[in-house]
Amino acid sequence: IDALYEKYNQTEGDEARKNVYKEIDRVSGEAAKYAIANEYDKMSQSIGAKGTNAFTSVEQTVYVNDIPENQFNKWLAIEAERFRNPILRLFHTELEAVYEEKNISLDRDGRKVDEKLMEGLFRNHAYGTQTTIGTVEHLKNPSLKKIRNYYTANYVPNNMAIIMVGDFDPDAVVAKVSKAFAYMKPHPVKPYIYAPEEPRTAPKEYTVFGPEAENFSMGFRLPGAASSDSKYLVMMDLILSNAKAGLIDLNLQKAQKVLSAGSQIDMLKDYSVHYFTATPKQGQSLDELRTLLWDQINHIKKGEFADDLLPAIVSNEKLDFIRSNEENQGRAYAMLDAFCLDLDWRHKVNEIDELASVTKEQIVEFANKYYNNDYVCVYKKVGTDNSIVKIDKPQITAVEVNRNAKSPFLSSILAMPSESIQPVFLNYGEAIESFITPKGLPVVYYKNTENKRFSATFVWDMGRLNDLKIPVAFSLLNFLGTDKYSADELSKAFYRLACSYYISTSDDQIRINLSGLDENFSEAMGLLMHLLNNAKPDQASLDALVERIMKTRANNKLNKGLILQQGMYAYAMYGKDNPFNYQLSESDLKKLKAEELIGYHIKPLFGYAHKMFYYGSKSREELSTGLESYVPGAVVLKGYPKAKEFKRTETSQDKVYFTNFNMVQAEIIWMNRSGNYDPAKQADIQLFNEYFGAGMSSLVFQTIRESKALAYSSYSRYSSPSKKIDPYYIMAYIGTQADKLNDAIPAMNELLYKMPRSDDGFTGAKESILSQISADRIRKEGVLNSYENAQRMGLDHDIRKDVYAAIPTKSYDDLQSFYDKNYKTNHYNYLIIADRTKVNPQSLEKYGKVDELTLYDIFGY
């Protein structure tokens, strides 16, 4: 196979190359008989690993696992063997998955914009001269020999780190890791040498075309992460955009001068990049966005920002530091940054103190030094990208995955002993306190014993379906002031307190969350209540908001993911009239009055039944007393407005819903309405999903990706409702090349109508679920979320306890029975989005009656 790929790379002419690839395909099929697909994922599943993944960026390759602590020895044995001597089995089917990943990137306008920015900023450095995934030509000519050479040169201990965070003895872990990886021998790694980037005296401009909404981006090249200037870059970015009180946040977002705008930084080893993005309002030019963004930069260059913004930034960074360090993942990624960027760990630990030392004068000097004409801007416009060259489908014969085979190494891992971990289930009656304040506010309380951070959420069981004006009213609130404060002053006040509020409105709920440092709880709550009770209606702000809503609606029709995953989904679930397209018309929006929205929807809010969920360090008594000053109580003045109801459709026959979209790939969702919610089915559902289609060791992934090379991403699951009154749905998904569509659909259908048996896969699924539940610890706000979800499902206990007790009793016959009853005999709605020049809708009639949906059908406008 090695030799054939080298021959393939040197062969010219389409027909000659096809003949060589046929031979690669034939020999790979023979080789597959001696391989066992996906054993790594089977082993990860057997130890209850979660989040098993890997990713590559411009200067890091990262392998990720979240494992129970009692499985450390097994995990270490697996990883030590994994990196010892990789044998690239089943390469041509995995290569096809990479082709699919490339084609996915060709459908993402944001990826093309990023690549152009980097290309313009870096003429010499690999940041701009190549992309992480490579070009189509790179992928068309792979070399197994070069891949092995890359591994030999770079996978050496002096170029690698194992980053571990958890509850363990560090000295014992280090000793075990040293022993397991003792076979690795260091050797010099060739340093990356590059010519420094020469500054430009004029900006570099690009125009990118694609089907998604238009926007503007620009980027500046700055010193790398280890530079002493990096702290100024961080502060510069946060002065501009911190999602609350930055110059871009207030002057552009809050002033509604743009549809959206922001900035962010990418700290890299040799250089860093400061990105700016903005999306235009209706009729606004991209050049105007460019001017508006530059205006904010110039404010900093002139020192035109408040002195108290700097300490406020430091306080908010401290809060973010607390949040990120509450979880293992946050701590691990902090170490990952330090390692890959060659930063002294003390720098990461002391980062907040370094930011606190930065002065206004230093920031102004930094801004004037680096923010000049040496920058790149990209105009993203709606149109056809004629430069796209997709990777054509090679002829690949499905290979054997040998799912019932087991290597001696896998057997040895499964035989290794491990100490048991006893699961910890929530006892809601003991963990959570529920009480009613003297004024009648129901409070669900869980104390934070880890730090001094709080999160308080008010919840009303009414939402968009009760009144379509509710989302508009609460969106408007973000742009209003009061009789005491302007809108900007309120944002600045919350930011100074390192507290923030967030209002979300769903179909059936209003949620107002206030979070931050507990020491500022009372003052922040007072500010929030002052805003809710004293917001001043402003018709000009509402008119600007309506204009932006209309532009957002137009942009939504250019959003492929929204069209498929929400619009077509709702259409298939409910029919032509559905919650997705139930919304105010343009004429209704333009008739809205600010006084009505504030007077009818905001100020009377606390007169409707509501409750509060609190997680924080205050005692129950302190909280109850503190709330009395601000919360008027839960006296019910009137009932909720009646909610609009929609009737769900039955899936009584196979049907195809097709939508045309300018794209390289084709995406397919299978959907079927199943039975009503039954908590007794929960163990069967989790077991089935784990075995059949929910992860990389599932039958669906093995068949669709590893055996048949038909998709980069594919899954199937029995989807549980979020409320007990809603039904289950059967779901499946494939994203594939358009010319593979008629291979992909039958491949998934075969699984949906006939489930292959794998006794080892079934055993692995059971072990994985038990191991994950044993190691799972629900903490912090998660306790309140678990309780609220249980109540929504009509449960009074932690459902995981039922699943843990039931899984050991399940047999393969139980699994087969669940499949036969819920999957095998069903009809399906096929939701397909593709370019009709590549996929003819009439060719899909073999799967069911075709209903071609227009964007008007989906969105209702």
How is this structure best summarized?
With 861 residues, the chain is an alpha+beta fold.
* Strand line-up in the sheet with most strands: 8-9-13-10-12-11
* Major beta sheet summary: 6 strands, mixed
Give the total of beta strands. Answer: 19
Task: Point out poorly predicted stretches.
Answer: none
Structural class: alpha+beta
Mean pLDDT, all residues: 93
Beta fraction of the residues?
A: 15-25%
Overall shape: globular
Number of helices: 36
The whole-angstrom Rg is: 29 Å
Termini, distance in Å?
Answer: 55 Å
- Helix fraction by DSSP (H/I, runs of at least 4): 40-55%
If you had to describe this structure to a student in words, what would you say it looks like?
This protein is α+β, with helices and mostly antiparallel strands. Strand 8 and strand 9 (442-447) form a beta hairpin. The protein is globular, with a radius of gyration of 29 Å.
Keywords:
six-stranded mixed sheet; 861 residues; alpha+beta; 44% helix; single chain; 36 helices
Please outline the helices and strands.
Blueprint: H1 2-10, H2 14-32, H3 39-46, E1 50-57, E2 60-66, H4 72-82, H5 91-106, H6 109-121, H7 126-129, H8 136-140, H9 144-154, H10 170-180, E3 204-210, E4 215-223, H11 230-240, H12 247-254, E5 260-267, E6 271-279, H13 286-301, H14 309-324, H15 328-340, H16 345-349, H17 351-356, H18 360-370, E7 375-382, H19 408-415, H20 428-431, E8 433-436, E9 442-447, E10 453-460, H21 469-477, H22 487-496, E11 499-505, E12 510-517, H23 521-534, H24 539-556, H25 560-574, H26 586-591, H27 594-602, E13 611-616, H28 620-628, E14 655-660, E15 665-676, H29 682-692, H30 699-707, E16 713-719, E17 727-737, H31 741-753, H32 759-775, H33 781-792, H34 799-806, H35 812-824, E18 829-834, E19 849-852, H36 855-859
Parallel strand pairs: 3-7, 9-13, 14-18, 14-19
Antiparallel strand pairs: 1-2, 4-6, 4-7, 5-6, 8-9, 10-12, 10-13, 11-12, 15-17, 15-18, 16-17
